[in-house]
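Me: Here is a favour to ask of a fellow structure person. Could you put it straight underneath, so I can go through it closely?

Assistant:
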Amino acid sequence: MSDFPVAALRSVEIATPQLSGSIEFYTKVWGLDFAAEADGAVYLAATGSDFHVLELVPGDRASLRKISFRARSREDLHRLFARVQEAGCQVVRAPGPSPAPSGGESFIVREPQGCCVEFVHGDRTKAARVVAQRVERLAHVNINSAEIERLSAFYQQSLGFRLSDRSKAMAFLCCNNDHHAVVLADAPVCGLNHVAFLMPDLESVMRGSGRMVDHGYPIGWGVGRHGPGDNVFAYFVDPTGVVIEYTAEVLQIDDSYRAKGPGEWIWPPGRTDQWGIAPPKSEDCKKAQLAVPFAPQGQKE
């Protein structure tokens, strides 16, 4: 496989106007565990090796504060910092000890379209477990982009990602054997489209979806199977308006995989997934996918 400088997607930080309510939802309904609390932020973990996959902080409205990636080595971390500076990214925090409980060395920059991205190396991990119906780790983050080709070029040229597929509306980018860790969606505004959480298997996606429905959260789209990535999906809207996805069975690829273009990702009329059973996406889900902005430019990290 290609020698990617980024090893994996690690976590996301989201601002919420209902911190206690968001903590309760993600721990008691969605399936995450409390990991730590520091400086007003709450860190939630999945069953995998990452110290945390979700960081929640108080805010006036739901917004994406940052996406965090793990660098493959300390040398890659510093090479990435040089590359993003060359690309004109605003430096939010220069390389140094991470202030988060997970530790390690990290830096944060704001990419050209306004999203803060963090890169970390040497952070704390834990023994991974596989637990039925519980989230293992993050699968991908989907970002809305008003200039999708420009942002795709940034991820490929500056961060070392590779384009794995390109549909009419989305660019799929990988940094390891997962078909995609980042998805860029063509949109009129820049911001968060959704965050996907990896479940152990299809059964866990189905039962997790049933748990959500039992707690009063309807399925916004799914259950179905995507085209690019071949993964099973079920979309929901969290209590603050953030779109979240249970997914499983993400396609594993290597350098022999051929990226397909928009003309090869076409469904028959009326179909929204491979199986042909997923109903159209709900209007509430569609609206929510365009409603969560990046954190304001002046907001401190």
User: Anything to note?
Assistant: The chain has five helices and 16 strands. The chain has a mean pLDDT of 96. The chain has two domains: 6-121, 137-288.
